[in-house]
């Protein structure tokens, strides 16, 4: 990550994560289950604005070649999170869900990497990624893929898996009860980050 992002990470200023063709290294389901993250972190965001603000802080430590896999049920705040990333990266405003176009490219306005926003919900397998040609932009952009778990991992040897959980705030014993049916922006979110691959081995975990 950048030398002093608010997220508390640092990096060596390299050019980004290595890129492998999807056909070269298919990660099967069992392989993904065996994979261990370099580190994990959890951050609580009290509302949608806090979600955007944290994502903007995280963006300060991203660089061209970074791959983010964004998970969370409907209403959990995936697009809100991506809007915060866009603000932090300084890309052209207007980030919305890419559901009906699969891929949207948001050019940088500050000379940094573009933001490539992908919705992989309708993709059945990693092989279908070839059709949208993410490899042509991956090395020069920050790529965020919603619903991409189990599909985009072969694209890069490093990634951030980010899961957004929106809680009702109700407690059942010691367990927090999650409810994805409501979309109230004031609901708290838990943002869980798992860092995989050599890009993140020497980066300090994200701090709340």
What this model shows, in words?
The chain is of the alpha/beta class and 208 residues long. The protein has a single domain (29-200), classed as Rossmann fold, CATH 3.40.50.300. Helices cover 16% and strands 26% of the residues. It has helices spanning 29-34, 48-59, 78-89, 135-138, and strands at 39-45, 67-71, 103-106, 114-119, 141-146, 159-172, 175-178, 189-196. Strands 1, 2, 3, 4, 5, 6, 7 and 8 form an eight-stranded mixed beta sheet that branches. β6 (159-172) and β7 form a beta hairpin. α2 packs across α3. The two termini are 16 Å apart. Residues 1-31 and 169-184 have low confidence and may be disordered. It is found in: Cytoplasm. It comes from Arthrobacter ginkgonis. This is tRNA threonylcarbamoyladenosine biosynthesis protein TsaE. Its main location: cytoplasm. Belongs to the TsaE family.
Integer-rounded radius of gyration: 16 Å
**Mean pLDDT figure:** 77
What is the CATH C-level name? Alpha Beta
- Fraction in helix: 10-25%
Number of helices: 4
> What structural class should be given to the helix and strand makeup?
alpha/beta
Distance between the termini: 16 Å
The name of the CATH architecture is 3-Layer(aba) Sandwich
Unreliably modeled segments: 1-31, 169-184
Pfam families: TsaE (PF02367)
Family: Belongs to the TsaE family.
Keywords: ATP-binding, Cytoplasm, Magnesium, Metal-binding, Nucleotide-binding, tRNA processing
Protein name: tRNA threonylcarbamoyladenosine biosynthesis protein TsaE
């Amino acid at each position: 990550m950048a030398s002093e992002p608010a997220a508390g990470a640092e990096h060596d200023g390299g050019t980004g994560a290595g890129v492998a063709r999807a056909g070269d290294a298919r990660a099967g389901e069992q392989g993904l289950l065996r994979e261990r993250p370099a580190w994990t972190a959890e951050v609580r965001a009290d509302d949608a604005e806090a979600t955007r603000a944290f994502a903007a802080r995280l963006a300060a430590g991203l660089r061209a070649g970074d791959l983010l896999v964004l998970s969370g049920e409907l209403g959990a705040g995936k697009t809100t999170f991506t809007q915060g990333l866009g603000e932090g990266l300084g890309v052209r405003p207007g980030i919305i869900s890419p559901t009906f176009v699969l891929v949207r490219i948001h050019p940088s306005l500050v000379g940094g990497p573009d933001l490539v926003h992908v919705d992989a919900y309708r993709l059945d397998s990693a092989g279908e990624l070839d059709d949208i040609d993410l490899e042509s932009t991956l090395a020069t952009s920050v790529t965020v893929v919603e619903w991409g778990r189990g599909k985009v991992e072969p694209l890069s040897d490093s990634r951030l898996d980010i899961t957004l959980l929106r809680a009702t705030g109700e407690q059942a014993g010691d367990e927090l009860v999650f409810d994805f049916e409501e979309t109230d922006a004031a609901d708290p979110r838990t943002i869980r980050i798992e860092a995989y691959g050599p890009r993140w081995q020497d980066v300090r975990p994200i701090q709340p």
